[in-house]
Design brief:
The protein is α/β, with parallel strands linked by helices. The chain has a single domain (about 5-190, about 220-245), classed as 3-Layer(aba) Sandwich (Rossmann fold). It has nine helices and seven strands. It has helices at about 10-25, 35-45, 50-55, 70-80, 105-130, 155-175, 190-195, 200-210, 225-235; strands spanning about 5, 25-30, 60-65, 85-90, 130-140, 180-185, 245. The chain has a seven-stranded parallel β-sheet with strand order 3-2-1-4-5-6-7, sandwiched between helices. Helix 5 links the parallel strand 4 (about 85-90) and strand 5. The protein is globular and about 50 Å long. It binds NADP nicotinamide-adenine-dinucleotide phosphate (NAP).
Length: about 250
């Protein structure tokens, strides 16, 4: 049994990964920003155990931690150390998407996304170094936007491309601790991120319809990401470093 921490696992890709990895019998720790959402996610993870295998798996634990708050991340690290956790894998998944036309550029929009999508994961990794096992796997959840251009995504794309830029140096510097770092690049996946970005039901329906003309023939779902995340975090990927694993249904071809 491995121990894994997934940030931003109260919804979407993070929650789906937590469910999947827990079903494989691993100990799952999750973070989220909002206590009430954390509670709902933990109920989803722990409250529906039916079969014996899952009952043998330790209950998932949740920690309230806004990754833009350095103090909160330090406290998370101290708590995990006090509870004697040693992480075999860390999925740095939490992130936000705040689309904005460049002609309406604001530093606030840029700063929010850099704080959440770049500084947050790097600060979390730094603070959790003492909690990481040797060996340990770190997965940075990036996006296809790091390479593929979408309008109104300047700040979001910059935040994800910069996160990917950190992967090489992190691998060089952390290898002596037994830490390896890889990226997942999800394609367009139906989660709360779209409604949080301001898309209404009509826009969501239009997006879902448009995705029918892609190679995959549909919009991706959080469950489409879980096998890749499991592979990078826990599976047979121990010799893999610096991979940008794109799971986009062929969208970028
Ligand atoms: N969905 C896509 O199409 C897509 C495509 C490419 C990449 N991604 C990336 O995939 C990751 C997961 O996104 P998702 O689509 O699953 O979105 P989601 O459903 O909105 O989930 C994002 C999670 O991150 C949490 N979070 C956001 N900011 C945080 C912060 N400062 N501190 C701690 N937790 C925070 C959210 O909590 P709250 O509920 O409190 O906001 C939520 O639990 C993100 O990094 C996103 O950029 C998504």
């Amino acid at each position: 049994m491995k121990t894994i921490l997934i940030t931003g696992a109260t919804s979407g890709i993070g929650l789906a990964a937590a469910q999947h990895i827990r079903q494989q019998g691993h100990r799952v720790l999750i973070t989220g920003r909002r206590p009430e959402r954390l509670e709902v996610a933990l109920t989803a993870l722990n409250g529906t155990d039916q079969d014996h295998k899952q009952q043998d798996t330790p209950a998932a634990r949740g920690y309230c931690c806004d990754q833009t708050d350095v103090t909160a991340i330090t406290q998370l690290s101290e708590l995990l150390l006090a509870e004697r956790y040693q992480l075999d894998a860390l999925i740095l998944n939490a992130g936000i998407f705040l689309p904005q036309a460049f002609e309406s550029f604001t530093t606030t929009n840029l700063q929010q996304q850099l704080n959440s999508n770049l500084l947050g994961p790097l600060q979390t990794l730094y603070e959790l170094l003492p909690v990481l096992n040797n060996p340990a796997s770190v997965v940075l959840v990036s996006s296809i936007v790091a390479d593929k251009a979408f309008a109104n995504c300047t700040a979001y794309a910059a935040s994800k491309a910069a996160l990917e830029g950190a992967m090489g140096p992190l691998n060089l510097e952390l290898a002596s601790r037994g830490i390896r770092v890889n990226c997942l690049r999800p394609g367009i996946t139906l989660t709360e991120i779209q409604s949080k970005a301001g898309m209404n039901e009509e826009a969501l329906a239009q997006l879902t319809e448009n995705m029918k003309s892609t190679l995959a023939g549909r919009i991706l779902q959080p469950d489409d990401m879980v096998a890749a995340l499991e592979y990078l975090a826990l599976g047979g990927s121990s010799a893999v470093r610096g991979l940008k694993l794109q799971v986009d249904g062929g969208y970028c071809l």
